Amino acid sequence: MSRAERLAAIEELQAQRGGTVVLGYFTSTRPGYESHMAMDVIPIFYEHLSALTSSPGETKIDLLLSSNGGDGVVPWKLVTLIRDYCSEFNVLVPYRCFSAATLMCLGADSVIMHPMGMLGPTDPTVSNDFNPTNPMNGRVMGISVEDVASYIALVKDDVGIHHEDELIQAFLKLAENIHPLALGNVKRHTLQSQMMGSKLLKSRSSDDLEDHEIEEVIRKLTSQLFFHGHPINRLEAREDIGLSFVADATPAVRDAMWKLYSLYAVDNRLHEAWQPIQEAIALEPLAVAPAGGVNSACVSLPTFRAVSVESSARSDVYEEEYEVTITRDSTGIYNGNIGIIKQAWRVEPDETTSAPK
Question: Are 145 and 25 in the same domain?
């Protein structure tokens, strides 16, 4: 879809929200090609915020956010930056808003959720040099705090081991397979996530949550939902988690949110699984090679949009370009190797100009 179409949808959503400034932040949730919230987006947001012409006291900012999460410190830096430019900060949730994206919501004055909107637990899944590797592919495996806690709970509650010496033996068995520093890293990130959640809730302009209510919200989000992918709907967010500032989108806002989200979904191909080798074969199919031979080709795939940040003022996209080398032997079997050749942010030009704004 064109910048002009998305700009019209942004302006429609701003009008339906009563004249707010809408910023869109989308990280790819495409199956097989997920991108994550990262600190490199902060300068991008600064450029959008610096383009505002109204004073902070006159400005209300709505962040239309769709992401599976990412770096847990991004929400704190981004929320505090945005608040320097507005008197009211809200998050609009059209669809997925998981993990670190849910942390972003905790710093909002209100969260407006589409019927398709979903929040998620904020328990971290962490990786560092001490984590175990997957024996199937050699990649470092992430460790979830809930997996570690559930192992101890299994030993105590299901197996029935309560004697101190036996519990120590069970922990030592765990430490034989997972480096103790990896386990310590899980604990550290959990404490950080809890701290970030608490600070974000306290940063809101409203004091509608007491300290004990904030502690209860954080406890539920980090340790009581048991599955990192659990989708929290808007009713559950209010009644079970205690996020009283979550509101249902009005019909007009609901439709405007979904229209804008759908344009990004098309541009970023969010509903298509990323299958680069199959895509390369479709672009340049090879004939079966003669006996003992191999046919080959190097195929450049269309540019992928991994992240989009957009407002009325400008559109920034983080793009990646890939090449796939495919081969086909005399039996007809294809093989492929994927290589990335470019990763960069760029400003998308408006259709009415010859250069980026």
Answer: no
Q: Are residues 19 and 87 in the same domain?
A: yes
Q: Measure the CA–CA gap between 46 and 85, rounded to whole angstroms.
A: 10
Same domain, yes or no: 115 and 233:
yes
Same domain, 92 and 241: yes
What tens-digit pLDDT sequence spans the chain (357 residues)?
789 999 999 999 999 999 999 999 999 999 989 999 999 999 999 999 999 999 999 999 999 999 999 888 999 999 999 999 999 999 999 999 999 999 999 999 999 999 999 999 887 666 666 666 766 666 666 666 666 666 666 767 777 777 777 777 777 777 776 767 666 666 666 777 788 889 999 999 887 889 999 999 998 888 766 555 689 999 999 999 999 999 999 999 999 999 999 999 998 899 899 999 999 999 999 999 999 899 999 999 999 999 999 999 999 999 999 999 999 999 999 999 999 999 999 999 886 544 444
Q: How many helices (H) and strands (E) does the chain have?
A: 11, 15
Whole-structure pTM value: 0.83
Strands in 137-288 per DSSP E: 143-144, 246-248
CB-based contacts of 224: which residues, under 8 Å, 6+ apart?
Answer: none
Q: Decide: 183 and 152 in contact? Cβ < 8 Å.
A: no
Determine the structural domain holding residue 21 and report its residue range. Answer: 3-121+225-274+305-312+343-347
Residues 68 and 27 in one domain: yes
**148 and 46 within one domain:** no
Q: Is residue 117 domain-shared with residue 7, that is, in the same domain?
A: yes
Tokens of 279: 């895509």
